[in-house]
Amino acid sequence: MTGTTTTDPARPAAVRTVLGDVPGSRLGVCDAHDHLFFRSHALPGQELDDPGEAEARLRAFQALGGGAVVQWSPYGTGRRAADLPGLARRTGVRIVAATGLHQAAHYPPGMLEPLLPRLAEVFTEELTSDMRGAPGVRAGLIKVAGAFHGLDDHARHVMRAAAEAHHATGAPIAVHHEMGTAVLDVLDLLCGQLAVPAHRVILGHLNRSPDLRLHHQAARSGAFLAFDGPSRANHATDWRLLDCLTALADSGHTPQLLLGADTTTPTAGPGMPYLLRVLRPRIERELGAEVAEAVLRGNPARAFEVEWR
To answer: What is the reported pTM?
Structure first.
């Protein structure tokens, strides 16, 4: 069955949260792609950088039954890794942090050049030892990003480093697809050329390009499919989301579906509570409670639970 993993009894699988490793079953209801903190050179003045506001969002999510949030903010994007353990303790929401790199445009000139020759080493250290600026805090996934309808040299270099770090650690790789494009290019590079198992890859932003044929082709690879960033009127999101989820579920791909709010700026959509306040009831009505439970609880547990090396 697609989207499944094998388990080595000598090495229990776990989700690597900022407070330590836990079984996937303990994540609970999960926002599989969001940002508590995010800073981009391409978005001046639109930073998510307020710990108090981040805590309020987590508490609102938790009050609706939320149990975990996966922050996809990678290296150098203001992820405030040192603040994440305190937020997790105070709110009771498990937090998974990311290493990796975003598109080059999100970084100021000169920031990446010293880092690029040793990316795989940096990613591996952050997954197994300490995240930069946060001693004792480890990342639980690698975030990478494609370009618009293709992969530029930066994307290919970062994805090669991510694959090397994956093979060293077992960590999942989460992919930002610009406007939902370049999905097959990513699968060809990561899963084809670089031999990353497809069930360790999470394809993000598929809602932004609601191409059902492409979604089915991607699903047949065995990768996880993330529909993240709901309720953005300038994207084909809510009004096609249920059609996309229904088509994939009807084809047997329910075990690969993930949902996330992807809040990247203070005004980027309604935020993580929307997943549970609005989308969960709609999915339950249209697809049934079993599908909603899989998408919000069971699937994230498997997507982010790995046998760490």
So the answer is: 0.94
